[in-house]
Design brief:
Blueprint: H1 2-22, E1 31-35, H2 41-50, E2 54-57, H3 60-67, E3 74-77, H4 86-89, E4 95-99, H5 102-114, E5 119-124, H6 141-148, E6 154-160, H7 173-187, E7 194-200, H8 207-212, E8 217-220, H9 222-225
Parallel strand pairs: 1-2, 1-8, 2-3, 3-4, 4-5, 5-6, 6-7
The structure holds pyridoxal-5'-phosphate (PLP).
């Protein structure tokens, strides 16, 4: 079981490197977030031992339960976040990937100001406008960023998307290139509270294509830990 984990992580790193080189970058330019939802602590400890330092969880309750059992891990909240749960995670996570409304951004600002911190966040964009997914529309991004200047205790570090699931990841290549274009455009603008650094896109099924199109942060679960049962 653990040997398999080792092999999986090696494969993922190799694929990341190849895709990075293909897009004119180095493996080190891409951050790997190991998505640990439903994964037990022992397996996660083993993955940490191999060198993984960034863990992503999509549920607040699970994240909060796991955080205390680790040292030296950067935690990422990658799933939909309800406003009434912001308080529970605000001093536990490195980056919130899933900010999808101004109300949520406002609440994050309130809670982080109470903790005297500045919370790094990503705006989740629903590029394909799937009904089943969270995220703002791509043409709403600039307006959203204007609003962010009102809040002193957040910093917008970039954009995140979840592409539609396609057996053939080539089909979602245009989704990634569209968001990369938006990311590059905004990165050039000088703005209070905006400091674009991360473009979080790519999961097990499509991370190679996402990196080729300019992603610098991939969120990978099953390619590392195996198929989830849930
Ligand atoms: C579960 C999840 C992932 C990882 O999915 P895999 O297909 O297992 O790699 C990435 N991002 C989000 C937001 C998730 O919820």
């Amino acid at each position: 079981m653990l040997e398999k984990l080792n092999e999986n992580i090696t494969n993922v790193f190799e694929n990341i490197e190849k895709a990075a080189i293909k897009s004119g970058r180095k493996a080190n330019d891409i951050q790997l977030i190991a998505v640990t939802k439903t994964i037990d602590i022992d397996k996660m400890k083993y993955a940490q031992g191999i060198g993984l330092k960034n863990f992503g969880e999509n549920r607040v309750q699970e994240l909060v339960k796991k955080v205390d059992q680790f040292n030296g891990i950067n935690w990422h909240l990658i799933g939909h976040l309800q406003r009434n749960k912001v308080r529970q995670i605000i001093d536990k996570v490195e980056l919130i990937h899933s900010v999808d409304s101004e109300k949520l951004m406002k609440e994050i600002n309130i809670q982080s100001s109470r903790k005297n911190k500045i919370m790094p966040i990503l705006i989740q964009v629903n590029v394909a406008q799937e009904k089943s997914k969270f995220g703002i529309k791509i043409d709403e991004v600039e307006g959203f960023i204007e609003q962010a200047t009102l809040y002193n205790n957040i910093i917008i570090k970039g954009l995140m998307t979840i592409a539609p699931f396609e057996e053939n990841a080539e089909l979602v290549r245009p989704i990634f290139s569209e968001l990369k274009e938006k990311y590059d455009k905004i990165k050039k603008i000088e703005h209070k509270n905006i400091e674009f650094e991360y473009l979080s896109m790519g999961m097990t099924n499509d991370y190679i294509v996402a990196i080729e199109e300019g992603s610098n942060m991939v969120r990978i679960g099953s390619a590392i830990f195996g198929q989830r049962n849930l």
